[in-house]
Design goal:
Blueprint (H helix, E strand, L loop, with lengths): L33 H16 L4 E3 L9 E4 L16 E11 L3 E8 L2 E11 L1 E7 L5 E7 H14 L8 E5 L1
Antiparallel strand pairs: 1-2, 2-3, 3-6, 4-5, 5-8, 6-7
The structure holds zinc ion (ZN).
Zinc ion (ZN) binds next to helix 2.
Length: 168
Amino acid sequence: MNTPVTAAKILAIAQRGELILSQRAQAVSNPLDPEIQTLIHDMQATMLAANGVGIAAPQVFQSLRIIIVASRPNPRYPEAPLMEPIAMINPEIIWQSTETCLGEEGCLSVQEMRAQVARAERLTVRYLNEKAESIEAEFSGFVARIIQHEVDHLEGILFVERAEAAES
Ligand code: ZN
């Protein structure tokens, strides 16, 4: 991702129960709009400050189809790949495997709760990057899980609605 000229802001994170988290987010018409570019940088800073591996714009009170995916190894997923954060604008999962896997998820918008969620093992996602270039890429495992979790946010769905066995 680009290095911002101005310092990024840490944004407030919407918590479960806020209306924006259950709404379908709007497509971004111009990714190059400076307000969108600023939002992406602020989302990334907010995600890192909260120690997250992904974030979606509705979580920072913007009903827009933008997600950031930023896997890194962590205590629950020591095998998770370390990656440069990827901003995905208007992401669409255009293919996913019928093969699923169960894994534990949490969410910056759902405090103190983690749960097992079944997700497709592999998928292909099409999105615009922050330069407005159309990208199609395949992901698997933990990164594919993050993408599905974040795209769900754009549809107003929280992981707890897909949970198999909730634990506090
Ligand atoms: Zn989430």
